[in-house]
Amino acid sequence: MISYDEANADENFNKLKTRFPRAQRIHGVKGIHQAHIAAANVCSTEMFWIVDGDAVIEDDFNFDYEVPHKDMNAVHVWRSKNPVNELVYGYGGVKLLPTKLTLDMDCASTDMTTSISNRFRPMEQISNTSLFNSTPFNTWKSAFRECVKLSSKVIDRQDNKETEARLNVWCNNSNDSIAIAGAKAGRQYGEANKNNKEALAKINDFDWLKEQYNDNPI
After folding, report:
1. Is the dihedral of CA 138, 109, 149, 163 positive or negative?
2. For the whole model, what pTM was predicted?
3. Tens-digit pLDDT profile for residues 78-128
């Protein structure tokens, strides 16, 4: 598990550890890329699982997927339930990452998951619910970051129609007004900076995100 400031991370890790005693946790590492590199550094296997700090694992998910040899250098992402808008896709889902490629990843990339490898495997099983709405800031931040990625089309190999549909749901069909505010602010920022790699990379700086949150009253 990788956690930073999620209000529910301790509870979620305890649940994970109860079911899977070998689970380890990387906590408080600044920078999304850097946190994943720290996780890769404690692994001795060719690939390793990642669970976000706000994730609650489904009862029927068991981390028992056997990777075919040809896919050992591919990023695998399982689907996750979104509690504020009922979307189900890879956002916030469990990941299975190639260790060496993670250690060598480009830390300047906007979307970490798709920058590790040029091979990507979307997995159909639902792995968890992503309870990112644990605090007002985390709710806003999560919606903002995802909608910057969706609106700027920065995610490699995406389906543009699918991306637009998800973006519209984030911005309009939510049961959480803070998530909608973050989504709309993220959409605006992503569209305005879609060709500005340096500006887009700022969404991985949590201090900068806090400033944006404070500057965008809800």
Report:
1. negative
2. 0.94
3. 999 999 999 999 999 999 999 999 999 988 888 888 889 999 999 999 999
| Residue 10 CB coordination number (10 Å) | 13
Evaluate whether 144 touches 209 at the Cβ level (below 8 Å).
Answer: yes
- Taking the CB of residue 81, how many other CB atoms lie within 10 A of it? 19
| Angle 63-158-116 from CA coordinates, rounded to 5° | 55
Q: What is the DSSP string of 76-141?
A: EEEEEE-TTT--EESTT--EEEEHHHHHT--TT-SSHHHHS-S-EEEEEEEEEEE--TTSHHHHHH
Return the SS3 of 41: helix
